[in-house]
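Researcher: Quick test of sequence recovery. Tokens follow.
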């Protein structure tokens, strides 16, 4: 799992990038979001619920195939 700077979480995979080498690091990741339209609609609905003072659930996450990773820091912040 990858946690983005906005707090969203992503299940990531890659056939070309050695992700295991970056466990525990802060990274900049580039990739392709699977089912991008559906993911964006879910995020918009969660934001609307939050704006209406309803609890914004964080149990769902996006899916991304990573194409490139650059290490920013050797530790998580």
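Model:
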């Amino acid at each position: 799992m990858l946690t983005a700077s906005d707090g969203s979480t992503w299940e990531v995979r890659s056939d070309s990038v050695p992700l295991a080498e970056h466990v525990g690091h802060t990274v900049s990741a580039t990739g392709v979001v699977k089912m991008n339209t559906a993911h964006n609609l879910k995020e918009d609905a969660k934001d609307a619920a939050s704006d209406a003072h309803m609890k914004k659930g964080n149990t769902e996450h996006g899916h991304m195939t990573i194409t490139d990773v650059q290490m920013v820091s050797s530790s998580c912040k």
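The chain has one domain: 2-73.
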